[in-house]
Each structure stands twice: as C-alpha cells, then as structure tokens.
Design brief:
Layout (H helix, E strand, L loop, with lengths): L15 H9 L7 H4 L1 H5 L5 E11 H4 L1 E10 L8 E6 L6 H13 L1 H4 L4 E5 L4 H6 L21 H13 L5 E7 L3 H14 L13 E5 L5 H11 L13 E2 L2 E2 L5 E4 L1 H4 L10 E7 L8 H22 L1
Parallel strand pairs: 3-4, 3-5, 5-10, 6-9
Antiparallel strand pairs: 1-2, 2-4, 6-10, 7-8
Length: 307
C-alpha cells in the first residue's frame, strides 16, 4: 500500500520548514548516557578507548554526545584488523548492544590473533530518540561517501583514515524493524517528494552482501553461526527480502559504495551488514543481541580459517 506522511506536500521535497517540523516532533525516549556510555567506559579494564569526535546537539537536545572507539590492547601491524560498527542507525537497538556484548564476552579472546576495533554507537542522538536520521533528517547510512551530509558518518571516515591501516573485515550491525514501514520509509518518501511503497518486513535474520565486491562464503558463515541462535528470514513469494532478490539463503546484495553505506567505509575485502528483526514474535531482545554477537563470531571465525 502507499503510505502518505503527515509532514509536507505530496510530490514536493521538504524545505527548511518541513525539516524543522519533523525535528520538533522528535523526543528523547531513552538515555545514551545511562544505557550505553557506562558500558563503553567499563571496558577500559581490557581495551583502549579512543574518543574520535563529538556531536554538539545542544541546540536540539541540550546535549553533546561523545563518540568512542574501542580497540584491542595488543595491537600489532602484522595481525589482520577487524572493524565492527553498531548504531549507525541509533534506533536499531541490538546493533548497539550487540557490539557491546561482543566486547564484553568475545573480543578479548579474539584479540590474540586479530586487531579488534569496535565503534558501538555511531549515532547516539538517534539512539536516544529511537530514530533513523540525524537532526537534519539525513540518513547516516547513506552518508559515508566523501560528500556525505551526516557528521556521524564523516567523523567515522576521518577517524578510520587517521589510523592509516588496512582492514581485513568489516561487519556492520543493523536491524530491520516494523517501524521501517510505519514511520521511516513514509518519512523518507515525504522528505524526498516521492511515493512510498511499503516492503515486506522479513521475519528473521539476514545479511546484506556488497554487490560491487561480493563475498558469499562469508555471508554463509555468518548465517550458519546465527542460525544456532535465532531463525533466518525466508524469502517472500517473489523470492525477495525487502524488495531485493535473494543471492543465497538469508542474503541479499546492495551496492554499498554507490549508496554511501557504512559497509563501504573501509578497504576490507570481507564485508557484511547484519539485519536482525526485533519485532518477530519468535525472537526476544536478548536473542537479537545474541544474534549480532553470533554474526560477529561467525565472521571472525571465517576470517581466521581463511586468512
């Protein structure tokens, strides 16, 4: 069905007034400073924390959000380097808490053989407002190209460039939620002056490979690992997930660099974007977090076995 959004005029892209109206409707619903930052700070016993920037949103929420990277301590140039990103879309809860859970439970063991770098919450304002966009109504996960408009994405790009290192693998933790159809896709169509057609929300976990540089064996390793924790999404009657033809069971492909996706932010030959479905009647919030951890573990085990 077509979904008409309550802000803007059909067929006309938003201007400043519509963006301001949208922003005025966003409210803080949970706390980055209570739920996420203490968990990051507690990792200092076993990891190195680096603040790679901050988001000064005092004009929006009265807050300035620090942005942290968590690095394994025994960093060595001869070891493969792995990047895990969470919370590019702040509303995708298990992406943030899955990255943190991986650090809390698994990352130290892997750091003997790998350099581990985790950015657990790239969009903290989005986390607090349970939102996909920045306060300027920009999608961070379309902003990782050099001309991207989201500070959240550009600060990540600048930080990674400053490390002057090559990455062997990057796994970016996401969710596909029912609110994609009820809120975010209609809002995007209204913002852009286009017509929205809702897609089928897959019930279960899936991954997004890079159609420009596919690594199907990695995706299968991730799917096999996650299947031990929660169910994998079945294709719809058209053989698709979110409107894309499946490349293999539980996997679709996107052109990540062309779309400015976070998955294109490094030179890693192995890349995957995870998609957890938190609204499934068959999955709990804890299972969603465990699915993200299983995805990372499956990816790292694949890297180690094939390095």
């Amino acid at each position: 069905m077509d979904k008409i959004y309550h802000i803007g005029t059909v067929g006309q892209a938003w201007g400043a007034a519509e963006t301001a109206q949208w922003l005025s409707e966003q409210t803080v619903k949970r706390s980055f400073f209570a739920e996420v930052l203490p968990a990051i700070e507690a990792l200092t016993t076993d990891f190195t924390l680096e603040q790679y920037g901050e988001l000064d949103y005092r004009h929006v929420s009265g807050k300035t959000y620090p942005l942290f990277a968590v690095k394994s301590r025994n960093w060595q140039s001869d070891k493969p380097t792995v990047l895990v990103t969470g919370g590019v879309h702040g509303y995708e809860t298990s992406g943030v808490h899955g990255a943190l859970r991986f650090l809390q439970t698994q990352a130290k063991a892997y750091s003997a053989k790998l350099n581990i770098l985790v950015l657990p919450c790239i969009s903290p304002w989005g986390y607090e407002t349970i939102n996909r966009w920045t306060p300027d109504a920009v999608d961070p996960n379309r902003s990782f190209a050099t001309d991207g408009k989201a500070a959240e994405a550009q600060l990540v790009r600048q930080y990674l460039a400053s490390l002057n290192t090559s990455f062997a693998l990057h796994i970016d933790l996401h969710e596909t939620t029912d609110s994609d159809n009820s809120e975010f896709r209609p809002a995007k169509a209204a913002r852009d002056g286009t017509v929205n057609k809702n897609w089928n929300i897959p019930d279960g976990f899936y991954t997004v490979d890079d159609s420009e540089h596919p690594c199907p064996a990695l995706q299968k390793a991730i799917i096999d690992s996650v299947a031990k924790v929660t169910h994998i999404a079945e294709a719809d009657e058209n053989g698709e997930l979110i409107g894309e033809k499946i490349a293999q069971f539980g996997v679709i492909n996107y052109a990540k660099a062309s779309l400015g996706l976070c998955g294109s932010v490094t030179d890693a030959p192995l890349v995957s974007t995870t998609e957890v479905y938190p609204d499934s009647p068959s999955a709990t919030p804890e299972q969603c977090i465990q699915a993200q951890v299983a995805a990372v573990v499956g990816a790292l085990d694949y890297l180690l076995a094939n390095n």
